[in-house]
Specification:
Strand content: under 5%
Protein name: DUF2795 domain-containing protein
Organism: Pseudonocardia benzenivorans
Distance between the termini: 46 Å
Oligomer: single chain
Number of strands: 0
Largest sheet: none
Shape: globular
Number of domains: 1
Structural class: mainly alpha
């Protein structure tokens, strides 16, 4: 690690273990054309409130990818957006 790397690292707030876990799952869902319902459940059970908008946007992107959006994904979006 160079001094520049350390300096950049010091300026970044350290992610909590929960955030690391959620980011891992979000990345997995982002890369999977058909996300696992189990992984989506795990995200929804653990996600901090400040990450909910990012999750809902990810679900919206998934819905736009196919000709027929998954009813399950749409319901998850509705539930997570408070609707």
């Amino acid at each position: 690690m160079t001094a520049t790397d350390r300096d950049g690292y010091d300026e970044q707030p350290e992610a909590t273990p929960r955030e690391v876990f959620i980011r891992l799952l979000l990345d997995t869902v982002r890369d999977d054309p058909y996300p696992s319902g189990t992984q989506l459940d795990m995200i929804e059970q653990s996600i901090p409130p400040d990450m909910v908008p990012e999750y809902v946007e990810l679900l919206a992107q998934k819905s736009r990818e196919g000709a027929f959006p998954s009813t399950d994904v749409l319901r998850r979006m509705q539930r997570m957006s408070g609707g």
